[in-house]
Structure formats: structure tokens, C-alpha cells
Amino acid sequence: MLNTSFTVRIRGPLACFTRPEYKVERMSYPCITPSAARGALEAVLWKPAIQWQVDRIAILAPIEYTAFRRNEVNSRAVAPTAAVLAGGGAHTPYFADEDRAQRNTVALRNVDYRVDAHFTMTDRAGPEDNPSKFVEMFRRRIESGQHWQQPYLGCREFVADVLPIDADTPAPLDLSLDLGVMLWDIVYKKQGNRAVFFAARMERGVIEVPPTAEAAAATVHGTAAGAK
């Protein structure tokens, strides 16, 4: 079978993988989450016919935090409905200056990761789609620095470089510790979206990512049972 696995390097000067338990101000997880790593891969190559799965994350740079304040808005601007646009009716204007708030952000700085991932074919693949086609597309894009949208590290303003592994890629940190409960990914279904978490453990700089949502949830339940 064709190997659809890749190892890439994802790095950037700033990153913020916001913990969901902080509702007002942003506080980052200590490293990139599997869902954020998947998003960086999809920024390089996304097609309905394939689905990315992150297998392993290696932390290549020391975990360093930085704090700063940013201007944000309290609510989202709501676009006019199709009926309003078609009928030429009035809609409520939105002024960011009147809805602005200054919030604190605790982010990561100078992050550097090695990510092992693979893709599988989905049921949306057409008769002309095949793994070899997408392997060559991703390899060509990663080697030339191309992407279909800008990769980012948690927040869109924190841009990321997605690079192939080379001789200059550092080794993982020689550090082992529990990272606590971390977001694994969002499971999208017609009945509603569901956030899935897992108990993250870094062994000598490497985090093994559970392969499925069920396996990820089982790590959290097992940790809770052990604590009791």
C-alpha cells in the first residue's frame, strides 16, 4: 500500500492554543494541540477526499510563555440574511469601536514542533481521486513552501511556517511531564459538534496522539478513575 504518512516541521514566533476553561482572557496550552497541527496541515493541502490524522507531536524548543494585551471585540458581526439582501431591507450596522475590549493573552513564544501525520481517503472521494495523487500534491507543496491558505498557530495573526524535515531540525526536548487534559479535536456531526479531550503525556519531548476519538476519551476516563 502507498505510504500516506508525512513528517513536517511547524514553527513560529508566537502561538496561542487557547484553553477552553478560560472564557474571557486567553491562556495557551503548553504546546500545540492535535487539532491545531491538523489545521496547519490542511492549510497546506485540504481536499474533501482526504482527512488528516496527527499521530505524534515532538516539541523541539523550550516551552516559554509571554503575556501581552490585545484589543478584541465582545461579539461577532452578524451578516445580513439572504432575504434582507434580496429585498434591499435595512440591517443593523456594527461598529467595532463601540464593542471593543482589552484582554490579556498568555501565549507561547518561539515554538518549534515536529509533527508525524497521515491522511486517509474519505467517502467524498471521487472516481478520479487516489492516494498517490494527494501524496504528490502535498510533497510538492511542502517542498516549495506553497499553501492554499496561511498556516497559523492558534490565532490567525500568529502565522506559522510548515517545512520539510532537514538536517537543521533540532532533536526533541529531553523532558518528560504530564501536560494535563488537552483538546484532541472537534468531532463534527449533523447532530452537533463535540469537543474531544485526551490526557496528554510528554515522554522525552514526544506526545503520542490517540488514533480515534474513543481512544482519546478513554485516556481521560482512565486518568479520572485512577485519581479516585
Secondary structure elements and pairings:
Layout: E1 5-15, E2 26-27, H1 34-44, E3 50-59, E4 65-73, H2 82-87, E5 100-121, H3 131-144, E6 152-153, E7 155-159, E8 161-164, E9 177-187, E10 194-203, E11 206-208, H4 213-227
Parallel strand pairs: 2-5
Antiparallel strand pairs: 1-5, 1-8, 3-5, 3-11, 4-5, 6-7, 9-10, 10-11
Describe this structure in words.
It is a single chain. This protein is an alpha+beta fold and 228 residues long. Helix content is 20%, strand content 39%. The protein has helices spanning 34-44, 82-87, 131-144, 213-227, and strands spanning 5-15, 26-27, 50-59, 65-73, 100-121, 152-153, 155-159, 161-164, 177-187, 194-203, 206-208. The strands form two sheets. Strands 1, 2, 3, 4, 5, 8, 9, 10 and 11 form a nine-stranded mixed beta sheet that branches. A hairpin with a 6-residue loop joins β9 and β10. The longest helix has 15 residues, at 213-227. The radius of gyration is 20 Å and the shape is globular. Mean pLDDT is 90; it is low at 224-228.
Summed up:
The chain has helices at residues 34-44, 82-87, 131-144, 213-227, and strands at residues 5-15, 26-27, 50-59, 65-73, 100-121, 152-153, 155-159, 161-164, 177-187, 194-203, 206-208.
